[in-house]
């Protein structure tokens, strides 16, 4: 649970426990041994799961038994035995390796945008310009924005690393501001990107494209269900956002890509054109994603004091001369 809402981990744990119950549902918890854990792990290998995912699932299964010990449901020695199971190592197991998450090609983004609705397309543009995470673009609200400066800042209510005590600040330059501006004329606590509004836009477009006279056929809204089982939500979640992109890719007949790749594209571009420190500040990383993906070693460099990085970034973001290097830096960030 996070902020009173179940996270995606709940479904992951259900999947892990499903295999546990199928093999050892009638086995007492105190008799669950390392050999049985490795038997479940072998099932995941046979299913084609990648090595890193299998190791994470093994850790989840061990945490289930740790919870049992905490609540005096399982003998303490069980977890000690399970922790002795070594993780799968790269090149030392038959489990397949995961493919690196690479930046999405700009041509693929433009092709996909042609097949997305207005709101989903603006979410893609906003994320590409700011380099924020998918969940961060889904939860933008007017009340979370500071619009007092030339460069706006956005502090999401919830973010990935908040449980580590870290703050998250997202910079919004002029291009991203122009995308976001039409969505700010609403209650300060309402979400800017709403599936309910996207559904209304879709229905309005269908009405405007109607060829049958209004005196014939169904009138607008006549054949809608009075009490539908599912109604459009007030905000997108990461799954809905990803599905919208995947459906657009299918319509465009191009390979599917996921919104996290927009963040990788921003990270790589910012690092190449503006430097390592700016990439880390904009993306909120302690390690540069772009550097790791490119196989370079300078991500291990000592990072200067955070205040120095912020001052340097803000100076470059707020340079407005179209002939200055600062303007080129702003454009390279996608925020200019």
Can you offer a commentary on this structure?
The protein is mainly alpha-helical. The chain has three domains: 9-83; 106-212 and 229-252, Intergrase catalytic core (hpI Integrase, Chain A); 261-333, no CATH class. Helix content is 50%, strand content 2%. A three-stranded antiparallel sheet has the order 1-2-3. Strand 1 (145-146) and strand 2 form a beta hairpin. The two termini are 38 Å apart.
Short description:
With 336 residues, the chain is mostly helical. Helices cover 50% and strands 2% of the residues. β1 and β2 form a beta hairpin.
CATH topology of the largest domain: hpI Integrase, Chain A
* Tally of DSSP β-strands: 3
Strand order in the sheet with the most strands:
1-2-3
Strand portion:
under 5%
CATH C-level label of the largest domain: Mainly Alpha
Indicate how many domains the architecture comprises: 3
How far the N terminus sits from the C terminus, by CA atoms, comes to 38 Å
Structural class: mainly alpha
Question: How much is the radius of gyration in Å?
Answer: 24 Å
SSE blueprint:
Elements: H1 9-24, H2 34-46, H3 51-70, H4 77-83, H5 106-113, H6 118-130, H7 134-138, E1 145-146, E2 152-154, E3 170-172, H8 174-180, H9 195-208, H10 238-252, H11 260-274, H12 276-283, H13 289-294, H14 306-317, H15 325-333
Antiparallel strand pairs: 1-2, 2-3
Helix pairs in contact: 1-3, 2-3, 3-4, 6-8, 6-11, 11-12
